[in-house]
Design goal:
The chain is α+β, with helices and mostly antiparallel strands and about 180 residues long. It has two domains: about 30-65; about 65-115 and about 125-165, GMP Synthetase, Chain A, domain 3. The protein is built from five helices and five strands; from the N terminus they run αβββαβαβαα. It has a three-stranded antiparallel sheet with strand order 1-2-3, with no helix packed on it. The protein has a two-stranded antiparallel ribbon with strand order 4-5. The mean pLDDT is about 90.
Length: about 180
């Protein structure tokens, strides 16, 4: 879709939501993951798309698929890039380059419930989460691009979910044999 088409589509949606704010509230399509043996998991979207994840071979997987924690970073990077591209289109900025890299550091000991260096349980989640944004647009001042990225991050759903650490409700159903 051309930048003008994207900008027009975004404006139509924004106008419709201003007229009917309740139309913006909706249930998001669930991600349904099913164990596929070993440490392999297949996750499906309601539209039929699927992604396969597995652990690295050192943890019992086959390293042929992405890991679940990589999918988290991928979601963060792609949501950020999408929101920046939306903002650029809305502002009439033609991007020459946009790349978002999500990086983190993890302690595998946490996955096993082992103690960290200080004797307390090691944290199983990612640590030191970072986004690196490389952006370029001819004729656009660096300050304007920086503001565009910063504003986009204040509106990016996955960035906000990571920053605000949504409460997670876990519902368990024990299936019969």
């Amino acid at each position: 879709m051309a930048r003008q088409d994207t900008a027009a589509a975004l404006q139509r949606v924004a106008s419709a939501l201003q007229r009917r704010p309740h139309a913006g509230l909706h249930e998001d399509p669930p991600a349904v993951s099913r164990w596929d043996g070993g440490s392999r998991v297949v996750t499906r979207h309601a539209n039929g798309q699927q992604v396969v994840s597995d652990l690295p071979d050192g943890l019992g997987g086959d390293s042929a698929q992405v890991t679940p924690s990589w999918l988290l970073r991928a979601g963060l990077a792609s949501c950020s890039a999408t929101r920046i591209a939306m903002a650029a289109a809305s502002q009439g900025i033609e991007l020459d380059q946009l790349e978002v890299r999500a990086a983190s550091r993890s302690d595998t000991r946490g996955l096993f419930g082992l103690a960290g260096a200080d004797g307390s349980p090691a944290y199983a989640g990612p640590q030191e989460l970072q986004l690196h944004v490389r952006i370029a647009a001819r004729g656009v001042a660096p300050e304007r691009l920086r503001a565009l990225v910063e504003h986009s991050h204040r509106l990016s759903p996955v960035v906000l979910a990571m920053q605000d650490a949504l409460p997670l409700q876990v519902h368990i159903e024990i299936a019969g044999p």
